[in-house]
Amino acid sequence: MAIQFHESDRTFHLYNDSVSYCIAVTKYGHLAGLYFGKRLRDRDGLSHLLEYSGGNQSPGFYEDGVEDPSYSLNEIRQEYPSFGHGDLRQGALVIGQKDGSRIMDFRYVTHRIYDGKPQLAGLPAVYTEEDGEAQTLEITLRDEWLQTDLILLYSIFNDYPAIARSARIECHTPEGITVLQAASACLDLPDSGYEMLELAGGWARECHMYRNPLRPGIQSVYSRRGNSSSQFNPFLALLRPEATETCGEALGFSLLYSGNYLAQADVDYRDVTRVTIGIHPDGFAWPLAEGQSFQTPEAVLVYSDEGLSGMSRAYHRLYSRRLVRGYWRDHERPILLNNWEATYFGITEEKMLNIASKARDLGVDLFVMDDGWFGTRNHDHAGLGDWYVNRDKLPQGVRGLAEKVTALGMKFGLWFEPEMVNEDSDLYRAHPDWVLRTPGRSASKTRHQWVLDFSRDDVMENLYQQMSAILGDAPVSYVKWDMNRSMSEVYSAAYPPEQQGTVYHRCILNVYALYERLHAEFPHILFESCAGGGARFDAGMLYYAPQGWTSDDTDAMERVSIQYGASVVYPLSSLGAHVSASPNHQLSRVTSIATRAATAYFGTFGYELDPNQLSAEDQAEIREQIRFIKQYRHIIHQGDLYRLENPYENNGEAAWICVSPDRSQAIAAYFRFRQHITAPLSRIRLAGLDPDADYKVSYCRNSTEPVELPFGPVGGDELMQYGLITSDSRSGIHNGIYPDREGDYLARIYLLEKL
Ligand code: GLA
């Protein structure tokens, strides 16, 4: 890994064994993008990769009497463009100026190359543990007229095909400026032969994969909801049309941010594709006085020539090792049971202990008490904001219950929704001005709640005091931090009119700050983020909470699609996944407890039900499931994931496999939504195995009892080239591998062991 500056043609080359990222300073000092992709040999003379041209109708260069029609910013691939001065495309930066102008012209001044990677104050970022793991390039550009500096940060890691980027704007003019848009990264690609992949959906249907060819114009994903949203995940990928899960080129753009964002691909008339990703400009305006600066969130760009799965594995490795922090990064996550779908708001100490002691009996490690334990929270009309125990429900307090749960030999966890308030709450009665609301107008409610004005430090301080009092008083090992509605009417009574454009961003900065304080004070607490399921399931959150509640939809089959999509970026160790009751509470679908577990195994495993309500057989199966997953979860959490069959395309079949780093063990899952009679033959081509080794293949019918397949050991090459047969006898193929009539909503788990 190295970052080279070639003085002769003023090019930068950032490279490691797998990728290169090349930048040039143009003859007039603008910063141009040369290349991002598979590793190139380092040499002087890379600047020829930039195509200069004039172009009809494109503004040509003119300055101090020098006219150069062969040079137009509109025709140059740029690193961090701004609109209006030559370049007429969508830019990365917009700065409002005292005279009303928004024109900028940043030119190269200097750069710095150093070992390691800086942290970004108050923001999530990937990190190094030792300086030798990464190198950083900081390029300073200046707009002399505006007396403003733009510092672009690029870090490259030794071991990951990734570049971390962000930008900082420093104001040196006494007149001040207002940053109206500042992307985290911009990448101009020399052609548009890509398809854009996005993760989209809605509440309880998060992270579905959509893939569409680029076309001239803009294609974007975004959030203006105050959180990163269930509707679009803050991520996009560009894939070559021929790229599949296992081969071909894929470029990933992932934003480490949990608020409003915009990520887009803009194809211009030259077929240049400009990708920008960063904070959404709508509702954003950040004034800077002389001497002040603004740091953007970080974006992580990944290149893979091993298809989409290759890109995902790069994100998984980087994010699970160098974004997730603290104690829980390197420790097995506890198997938890959450009471939400078991009791909803109907919490009593007796019920909690009944559930917890049965859960303990079955092998669960952590009991989590969800919404309803505090204030007057008997329903969702009241109580949010009042984070003190409801003694009618828990006469001995949280501590009393937590101590009893701990005495059972389990850990205890608690639900909070710190950013919200109900009108019917002591907090709101005491501080009606603590709600986000435009003056003189009413504020919309969602789920009968308002959003607290987290841009205010006094609000954040209040929540810190309330939460730390509870967490310091009782043996709490886990916190589920929820955020159950989008933000609207965003206006803060605490700030003057010219600061209102800072409120969205300040809110999320204070969420990060509160996480940081609690994390520092309670380093062993495992945080799980949640926002009505996956409305804040993003890379930024992973810096504070190593796992997130992937979706409020706990139906096993719906979850296949959700987890399949989420795994495009996020490591399986971050996907909260639970077995819930059947019929399912969201969809009334009936599935076996084996099918439900098979999906949930491929995340951070747990339960979301009352085990006392289950049959003796299901209880016994839970005991086996926990024993089983503890034996194999290291492959799922530390191994490599290969997605094999896409649930959106394959007629209701889906499959994936996790392979241990040394390829000696693997665990695969095959899901079939509907059984068909006299169906086509089916098989799944596995991936990631050692082609030269033989594997013992077993399948688990009820998800826990491995039965060796009747044909003995199989070659890794056969399993990857021909595939693993999944046809069953109802298809008319009586090869005797699988039992008859396995039915709809089938999940099979396969275990592979190298001989
Ligand atoms: C959200 C969460 C659920 C549960 C409820 C409680 O919907 O996603 O898991 O915690 O809130 O109100």
Please sum up the structure shown:
18% of the residues lie in helices and 31% in strands.
Notes on the structure:
With 755 residues, this protein is α+β, with helices and mostly antiparallel strands. 18% of the residues lie in helices and 31% in strands. The chain has twelve helices and 41 strands. Strands 8, 9, 10, 11, 13, 14, 16, 17, 21 and 22 form a ten-stranded antiparallel β-sheet that branches. Strands 23-24-25-28-29-30-31-32 form an eight-stranded parallel β-barrel, surrounded by four helices. Strands 33, 34, 35, 37, 38, 39 and 41 form a seven-stranded antiparallel β-sheet that branches. It is globular. The mean pLDDT is 96. The chain binds alpha-D-galactopyranose (GLA).
For the structure shown, list the relevant keywords.
single chain, alpha+beta, 12 helices, binds alpha-D-galactopyranose
N-end to C-end Cα span: 36 Å
**Global Rg:** 27 Å
Total number of helices? 12
Small molecules in complex = alpha-D-galactopyranose
User: What would you call the structural class?
Assistant: alpha+beta
Query: What's the count of strands?
Result: 41
Low-pLDDT sequence parts:
none
Strand content: 25-35%
Average predicted local confidence, pLDDT: 96
Question: What order do the helices and strands come in, and which of them pair?
Answer:
Elements: E1 2-6, E2 11-15, E3 19-25, E4 31-38, E5 61-63, E6 66-68, E7 93-97, E8 107-115, E9 134-143, E10 148-157, E11 162-171, E12 177-189, E13 195-200, E14 208-213, E15 217-223, E16 235-239, E17 250-256, E18 261-267, E19 273-279, E20 286-288, E21 293-295, E22 298-304, H1 307-322, E23 336-338, H2 340-343, H3 349-362, E24 366-369, H4 397-407, E25 411-416, E26 420-422, H5 426-430, E27 449-451, H6 457-473, E28 478-481, H7 503-521, E29 526-529, H8 539-542, E30 547-549, H9 556-566, E31 575-580, H10 593-600, E32 604-608, H11 616-638, E33 640-645, E34 653-659, E35 665-672, E36 683-684, E37 694-700, E38 706-708, E39 714-715, H12 716-721, E40 724-725, E41 746-754
Parallel strand pairs: 23-24, 23-32, 24-25, 25-28, 28-29, 29-30, 30-31, 31-32
Antiparallel strand pairs: 1-2, 2-3, 3-4, 5-6, 7-12, 8-9, 9-10, 10-11, 11-21, 11-22, 12-19, 12-20, 13-14, 13-16, 15-18, 16-17, 17-22, 18-19, 26-27, 33-34, 34-35, 35-41, 36-40, 37-38, 37-39, 37-41
Helix pairs in contact: 6-7, 9-10
The protein binds alpha-D-galactopyranose (GLA).
The site of alpha-D-galactopyranose (GLA) has 11 residues, from loops.
